[in-house]
Amino acid sequence: MKKEETIQNYLEAIYIISRKRENVRAIDIVNYLDFSRPTVSIALKELEKDGYLIFDDKYVVLTEKGREVASTMYERHEYIAKILMKLGVDEKTAYEDSCLIEHDISKETFDAIKKSTEHMFK
Hints:
Layout: H1 3-20, H2 26-33, H3 37-49, E1 53-55, E2 60-62, H4 64-86, H5 91-104, H6 107-117
Antiparallel strand pairs: 1-2
Helix pairs in contact: 1-2, 1-4, 2-3, 4-5
């Protein structure tokens, strides 16, 4: 997995958890991603150093920079999965495949797909 993809996965996970819980803890991320505590702790410290989040050893909060990346990935993930399901792909496969696609698709291509498929959701 590429470093950028790893960053995107962590930020998206934090974003998703924060939509369900007021405060995101490191253990929530451990459980969500099914990674070890040390792995998540190291990643959170790196993401904090890079300006994506604030981690005070108790709670994790996305910065504006982190929230922007996370919400972009989340939108892509959800939208691509919905398109795939509309095309007849089962939900589990659609979400797994959308997770692969969301990281590699350009903004230009995603915007074009979104524009040309919006009618599917009206």
